[in-house]
Structure formats: C-alpha cells, structure tokens
Amino acid sequence: MQTRSSPSIHTLHSLARRVHLEGYQQLSKHELYARLRKGFDYQRLLRAQYRTKREADAAPELPPRRGRGRKRDAATAEVDQKRSPAESVAVPAPRLKDDHCPEPKRLKSYRAYNKLDPIMFTRLGKKKFKFVRPNGTAIWYDIKTLVQYIIKTGEFREPETRIEFSAQDLSRIDAQAAQFGLTLPSVVEARKNMKTYEEKRAASEASLCLERFCGEVVADMQRCLEQYDPETLEMCLVGQLFPSYSHFFQQIRERDPEHAKQLVSHHVTFLKGPPNKPTQDPFGFLPIILNFVKDVSQGTRTASEFGF
Fold this sequence. Notes:
This protein is mainly alpha-helical. It has helices spanning 9-18, 29-39, 42-58, 68-82, 143-153, 167-179, 187-192, 194-227, 230-255, 257-272, 286-298; strands at 128-132, 138-142.
C-alpha cells in the first residue's frame, strides 16, 4: 500500500537492494522507510531509481536468439523445477554504479609526506618529530627547531594549524629529543612555567603600544610641517608634539635600547620622505625636527624638560 508519506513496499525493497541494506526483508514498511531516510540520501535514491527505470524502458528490446539459446532456457527451467525450495536462494541484484549512491569513506593515512621543515623551510634530516592532527593528517618537524620555537615563543601549539599540543605530545617531544642526543630545554617543564611567558607577552604588548604612539606623533609632525604656517607649526611642535615624543621614546629606550636605535632610524627616514617625493618644508623646520629626534635618541633631551 502506498500512501502520501511513504511509497509502496516494493519500491522500498528496490531501494534497499540498491544500497545493499542487509536484512531489509525482515523489516516492516515503517522501519525500512525510516532507515532509508535516516542512513541514506532518500531523495537521491528515488531519482536514481526513476532514472534507471526510464533508461530501461527506453532501451530497444532485442529479439530472442535462435538455436542453443532456446534449448538452454528450457534446460535451465527444467533444472529449476527439480530444485527444492531450500536450494533456491535469491541472488542479490548487482549494484549499479551511480554518482548518487553513498560510498564508504576512505580512512585517511597517518603518513607524513613533507620534506621541508614548516618552521625553517630547510630540508628535514633524521632528527624529526611527527605530529598527527585530529583530522588524521600528519606532518614532520625538525625536532630541534620545534623545541627552540616552543621555548622562545611560549606557544605550545603547532605552528601551522595552531592546534594545541597535548601533554602526551610534549612528553613525546622531550623523549625523542633525548633519544637523538640533543641537549635542549624540556618543553614539559616550560609548560608548567606559563607565568614567565605571560609577563613577557605583557611587556611586549606595552612596548608595541609605545611604538605606535611614537609613530602617530611622527606622522603628526610631518603633517603639520607640510600644512601649517610658521607660528602655528612652532606652537604645535613645542606645546604638543615634542613633549609627547620625548615622553614615549624615553620609555622605549629604558625597555630596549637596541630597539630604540632602530626605531629612530625609521622615524628619520619617514620624516625626510622618499627620494622621489621628499617631505615639503616651505619654512625650514625639518632640520630642527630631525635634530630634536636625534637628541632624544641620544638622551640629551629628556621628557623632564617639558614637564613630564
């Protein structure tokens, strides 16, 4: 019986044979219909079944072969009549190759194929570590480079996918490093001392903020130099920009003197402008600004002169 909610039992059996569903003959119509809808793409199965039937109807019917074909059919029918019901076993229909039929998923390989270290992009040697990701893909790392990366950055994650290393992964890294005879810090012990890395990150973020403030002040110096008249420019430099720059730069120099020297060279290059389009200096204030920046970098001008 076919209703609006489900097709006939013959259609369901045909679909079950198509997907090789075991034990479908023992299921009721409701159970079979539910399993087909839940475990398979039911609508695609129906479309594939309809398309197969339409192609079979459209195929021309071949005439029966003469001679041995009829004798063989008669002999086969006679043998079938002599068989007992227990010997007559139903043979499942051959599975038709169709794009809509679900195929079993292939298991992904855990073999790693990369020949270059993902961190240094150098050729991998024998001292390497294999990390297997949750999706089944695997990748090789040079174990010395990986340990140095983890210890230096405090990032206990895979560099490529940012997947966090588990405690077993870290223990395996230490064990393989010791097995290869490498004298390296323990990543397991480093993982227990996260407070040190948090303090370093806080200091790095503070230095980055100060560097941004200095960059904004230098950009304002160049903008005022090209747009303002002499009186307004002098008031802007002495009253606002020079004090702010000396205040921020002094804090950077106290934290990292080497980085402060590099920062000054960038600021001087930015204030001068590119060679093909130098900064416009209609009133001759650019040498004054450059001398002030150099004095602040050398420590001859401090923020205390401006009330800080």
